Amino acid sequence: MPGRPYTSLMLLVSLLLLITFSDIAEAAKLRPSDCKPKCTYRCSATSHKKPCMFFCLKCCSKCLCVPPGTEGNKQVCPCYNNWKAKDGRPMCP
């Protein structure tokens, strides 16, 4: 059947997109009660846990989003990514 490889490829691409967007959706749909466990994980790899938790919780409560992982991935949460301190540095860890 000539259409079978194309159908399989489209199914695979669709599945990969679904997995990618489900991670983004999971990061973006937090409730305030979800902030502490998400920030605890987000700050787990740093040696500066207290300031990381303070700013992560502050950012999460405002943005209701914490990027996945222990660093990076901020593009998943635009509010979290774009919030800057007065001196222009990123507010959120």
Automatic annotation (TrEMBL):
InterPro entries: GASA. Residues 1-27 form the signal peptide. Keywords: Signal. The keyword Signal applies. The keyword Signal applies. Pfam families: GASA (PF02704). Belongs to the GASA family. This is Protein RSI-1. It comes from Castanea mollissima (Chinese chestnut).
